[in-house]
Amino acid sequence: MSAPVDHPAVHPAGGLPTAGAPPRDLPSGNRFRRIGGGLSLLASGTLVCASLAMIPYESSTDEAYLQTGIDHTGNVLWAAVVLHYGYLLLLPAALTLIRLGRRRMPRTATTAMVLAGLGAGLSGIVAIDFYAVALATELPRDEALRLYEVSEGYVQSSLITLPAVLGVVLGTCVALFVAWRARAIPVAPMVLGIAGWVGFAGFAGGTWLPTATTALVAVALAWCGVVVLRMRDETWAAA
C-alpha cells in the first residue's frame, strides 16, 4: 500500500491556511492598505476630538455660537481645518472596519459603507464656520444674527446636513458592530464608539460635552487602529 499523501490544510471557510500549509501569495498593495486603514483609524477620531477641544463651543443659541467666533476667531478657523480632515478620514476608517467584517455580515457591511459614504459630506459642511466668523466679526451683532438665522432657515440645507450627520454617526457605529461580529475587534471599542457617537449626536449640548463624547470615539477608533496595525498581513488579506 502506498503512503498517504499530505495535502495542505485549508480553512473551511476559505480563510487563512492552517499550520503546515504553504504560504500563498498576498495581493498587491495588501500591506499598504492595511497600514493606511490602521492610520486612518488612529487619526480620524483623534482629529475630530482635537478640533472640538480647541474651542469651548457654546452653541445653545445662534447668538452664543456667533459670539464664539468673536471670542476665539483664530481657534475657530484652525479648528475647522482640523475637523475637516478628521471627518474626511472617518470614511477610510469606517471602510477599514467594514472590510474586516464583510464576509460575516455582507448586507450589514454594505449598509455601513453607504452610510459612511453619505457621512463624508460632513467635511464640507464645516465651511459654515468660516461664514459664521465673517458674519460675527464684520457685521453688527443684530445684522449678523439675522443673516445667520436666514441661512439656517433654508429647508434645503437640512437635506444636506441631516444625511451627513446621520451617515457619520450610523455608518461608523454599524462599521464597529460589523468588525466586532467578525471577531476582528474586541467588544470594548465597539461599546465606547457607539456610546461616544450617540452622546455627541443626542446629548452634547454643553461647552465641553462634544469634546468628551468624541474623546470616547477617538479612543475606540484608535484601539481598532492598533489592532489593524498589529495584524499579520495574511490575516488582513483573508478578511
TrEMBL record:
Q: Which UniProt keywords apply?
A: Membrane, Transmembrane, Transmembrane helix
- Low complexity bias located where? 12-23
* Highest taxon in the source lineage: Bacteria
Q: Which residues cross the membrane?
A: 38-57, 77-100, 112-134, 154-180, 187-205, 211-229
Query: Looking at the record, which segments are called Disordered?
Result: 1-27
Q: What is this protein called?
A: DUF4386 domain-containing protein
Species the sequence originates in: Trujillonella endophytica
Q: What is the lineage of its organism?
A: Bacteria, Bacillati, Actinomycetota, Actinomycetes, Geodermatophilales
